[in-house]
Here is the input.
Amino acid sequence: MSKMLLNQTVVVIGSGIGAAVAELASAEGARVVAISRSGIAPKGVEPLPADACDVEALGSAFAAIGPINHLVHTAGARTAATALPLLEWDALSAAFDTKLFSAIQAVRLALPYLSAQASITFTSGQMSRKYGTGSLVKGAGNAAVDAATRHLAKELAPRRVNVISPGVVDTATWGECGSDARATFLTRVAAGLPVQRVDAPEDLASAYLFAMTNGFVTGSVIDVNGGGLL
Here is the structure.
């Protein structure tokens, strides 16, 4: 079976979901560079330590990588559910800095290295259209990423720009791996979904692969939430 990303360079920014995307892209034959604060990457993936919000470090990283076929941004900040009267500016700023502003900066800095037919894939989340008390920061940040995707799909054409919008994914966002609190939360969420389980990073990675390899998809918000918006 032919590998879908053979001889292409994929840059993934962020850990967690990003690590799963990097691993799958590598398995599909790509040269993969994983940019994260930890500098840890799956086997076969080139690690490059850098903070997604550090413009200078990110610019240097792209210069070191060279030509890029696919850019994937999965970085995000942990954001607690907070009602408006208790919302602090630092939490609001950190959420937008990591989720939205670093994604836009990454594209701006990568432009000189992105091929003419490159794909760019952002990450938002179902909170952009799933409304509730305490979800203002997550919802507004995700909605802003969705909107930025569509604007950039027009501006950067023929490069393709899409966004993956997941529901609850089994990552460290929800607590320590193996902890009772994390297991209890994920079990409760799964019980309310039509598919009766939360998403695993490995399953979600296939959506990013689709966005990278389907040359007719651009400006799309790709929902992968197990029916969480139903």
The longest strand covers residues 114-123. The two ends are 36 Å apart (CA to CA). Residues 170 and 200 are 5 Å apart (CA to CA). The helical segments are 17-27, 55-65, 89-110, 136-155, 180-191, 201-213.
